[in-house]
Design brief:
Layout (H helix, E strand, L loop, with lengths): L14 E3 L5 E8 L5 E7 L4 H4 L1 E4 L1 E5 L3 E8 L6 E9 L2 E5 L4 E2 L10 E3 L12 H4 L3 E4 L33 H6 L1 H7 L3 E4 L3 E3 L7 E7 L6 H13 L3 E6 L9 H9 L42 H18 L3 E4 L7 H14 L4 E4 L16 E2 L2 H12 L5 H14 L2 H5 L2 E3 L8 H4 L4 H12 L4 E5 L27 H16 L2 H4 L1 E7 L5 E7 L3 E8 L5 E6 L4 E4 L5 E3 L4 E6 L4 E7 L1
Parallel strand pairs: 11-12, 11-20, 12-15, 15-16, 16-17, 17-18, 19-20
Antiparallel strand pairs: 1-2, 2-6, 3-4, 3-7, 5-6, 7-8, 7-10, 8-9, 13-14, 21-22, 22-23, 23-28, 24-27, 25-26, 25-28
Helix pairs in contact: 7-8, 9-10, 9-13, 13-14
């Protein structure tokens, strides 16, 4: 056995409390290196009388490693443990301070989960596991109140540019809630609504005022109430990393310089502020001079921003926040924000925009989840661009599955496209059937799927600003078959918990192979999903754990012969099977 590949660490994604009585333990080993793994555990104060053993299952794999997992319910909330590994005649015991063929007589050198404190349990909102989000870029969704149009407003459906307007507003959203309810979504994610000088509103001018082009604070409250009556939650996008350059405190700094009472609100590198050129005088988001970065270490700034987070929950009853550029704000501020938000609404959802490993933000004291861009990237590479094969896709998903505690995975925000990326259909070269494969994976994997407005009716678009086209409301210009496909996927996901929180494993994912198969299951149902991410027809024999299956889309009964399902797929074809009650 390869000792160097072994890895475990107390807390984080390796040992975490899922609830007030259950601890998950994970272990990393070299891929295909061991045959079985188990955990020896007990109470550190009475090891001799409490030692017990539990089998581990192989949770997932990536290109280099296998990840094993088990759950333990320590009777006294304390846990001392070590791992027992076997491969052929060889065995190995692995603890925190030793790794050897024969274990010690006591618990010295074991790993420890010192105490399962209820306050330390990472709790994410239960409703998010059942959520299907719909992202709305307000300026381009629907124009419901032309009296609020900007001075220069172009005809609806024109070419999107970086700085043009078409008059989308909150009344337009209110007018089309029937569309969202018919689609089946139960949560909306709005990109910023607050007063700003651009069409995207990420350059906030007034955090406590809905932009007049969109409506009023009163209208937002009425919209949230209308959504709640339909069972739809509302998530606001909010920017605490930076403001816009028209934000009054920053204007004051520009006017008064070091004498401004807000001089320490921003990260100024030199006085006076004579230049707004790239990186010259003050820190910004990226190198955008109109987006000055907040000094969140300043208690005055921190209190100001935290009050904003509290305000919109208490006055408009919103259900949480998507936090822009979350990885560039200090951890102490996010810890304070979590306290404020959860005090205002305990089941509010806090999701951050982070595109890399996010474990440091997912320890239960900051974010509930992150936008799962790594999974999105793998989906696009496999289903849309064909630059990785089935094995590399499965390996990348396996790495992500093992990267975070289960509750963070279940609450993750699963996107295939957004206002920051090219649209899915465009990435698929306009091939609708190809795009459906990506959507199927999105809706049968962990996390809350999010549909970017218009994807459900076939809207196309390349990079920003082309990905921000006006929504098409004339049904003759919509792909209604695609809409019905999205409806069916949402209904299927909401009907079966196994597709939301059941276990997951790949059963076919090979090198130089675009065929893919995986399972999801819980105590009630088991699903097999099979897809052909190739334009050529394909056949596949899948090992089936049950002899009796039903095809999802046709209702046809299918029997597994000799423990296998023989499956034929057209180019970019898919089939789904269910076994269970």
């Amino acid at each position: 056995m390869n000792h160097e590949a072994l890895y475990h660490r107390h807390k984080q994604n390796w040992a975490f409390a899922y609830d007030q009585s259950t601890i998950y333990l994970r272990l990393r080993t070299k891929r295909d290196d061991i045959e079985s793994a188990s955990v020896c555990y007990g109470d550190k104060y009475d090891w001799d009388n409490t030692e017990n053993r539990g089998c581990m299952i192989k949770l997932t794999s990536d290109s280099l490693f296998d990840y094993w997992e088990t759950t333990v319910q320590p009777p006294f909330r304390r846990l001392s443990y070590r791992f027992h590994l076997q491969s052929g005649d060889e065995q190995l015991f692995y603890g925190e301070r030793w790794c050897k063929a024969v274990p010690s007589d006591n618990s010295d050198g074991n790993f420890e989960y010192p105490y399962l404190n209820a306050a330390d349990v990472f709790q994410t909102p239960e409703w998010v596991k059942d959520a299907v989000f719909y992202q709305i870029f307000p300026e381009r969704f629907a124009n419901g109140d032309p009296s609020r149009n900007p001075a220069i407003t172009e005809a609806w459906g024109g070419k999107p540019e970086g700085n043009n307007y078409f008059g989308g507003d909150l009344q337009g959203v209110m007018d089309h809630l029937d569309h969202l309810e018919l689609l089946g979504v139960n949560a909306i994610y709005f990109t910023p609504l607050f007063e700003a000088d651009t069409n995207h509103k990420y350059d906030t001018k007034d955090y406590l005022k809905v932009d007049s082009h969109f409506g009023t604070n009163k209208l937002l409250k009425e919209l949230v109430e209308a959504c709640h009556k339909r069972g739809i939650r509302v998530l606001l996008d909010i920017v605490f990393n930076h403001s816009g350059n028209a934000f009054p405190p920053f204007v004051d700094v520009l006017e008064k310089g070091v004498r401004s009472r807000y001089a320490d609100w921003f990260l100024v590198k030199q006085w006076p502020l004579r230049s707004m050129e790239k990186g010259s005088a003050y820190e910004t988001f990226s190198f955008e001079p109109n987006l000055p970065k907040f000094n969140t270490s300043n208690p005055e700034v921190s209190d100001y921003l935290l009050n904003i987070a509290d305000y919109w929950i208490r006055t408009a009853d919103v259900d949480g926040y998507r936090l822009d550029v979350a990885n560039e704000v200090d951890h102490r501020f996010w810890r304070k924000l979590r306290e404020v938000v959860k005090a205002a609404k305990p089941d509010a959802y806090i999701v951050g925009e982070i595109m890399h490993d996010s474990m440091a933000w997912l320890c239960g004291d900051q974010l509930d989840a992150v936008m799962n861009y790594p999974v999105r990237d793998s989906v696009i590479k496999f289903f849309a661009r064909h630059v990785i094969d089935g094995k590399e896709f499965a390996d990348s998903i396996g790495a992500q599955l093992a990267a975070y505690p289960l509750q963070a995975v279940e609450a993750s925000f699963q996107v295939l496209g957004s206002h920051d990326t090219p649209r899915l259909i465009t990435l698929c070269g306009g091939n609708i059937e190809q795009s459906k494969l990506a959507v199927i994976f999105q809706f049968t994997y962990y996390g809350a799927p999010c549909i970017y407005y218009g994807d459900e009716i076939g809207l196309t678009g390349g990079n920003d600003p082309d990905n921000r086209k006006c929504m098409i409301w004339d049904e003759s210009g919509q792909n209604r078959d695609l809409f019905q496909f999205y409806q069916a996927m949402i209904k299927l996901r909401q009907e079966y918990p196994a597709l939301r929180t059941g276990r997951f494993r790949f059963i076919h994912a090979k090198e130089r192979d675009n065929r893919l198969a995986y399972e999801r299951w819980d105590n009630g149902n088991r699903f097999i999903v099979v897809m052909n991410a190739s334009p050529e027809p394909a056949k596949l024999a899948i090992a089936a754990s049950s002899p009796h299956w039903q095809e999802i889309w046709t209702g046809t009964s299918v029997e597994a012969m000799n423990g296998e399902l023989e499956i034929s797929l057209p180019g970019y074809g898919y089939r789904m099977f269910r076994s269970g009650s």
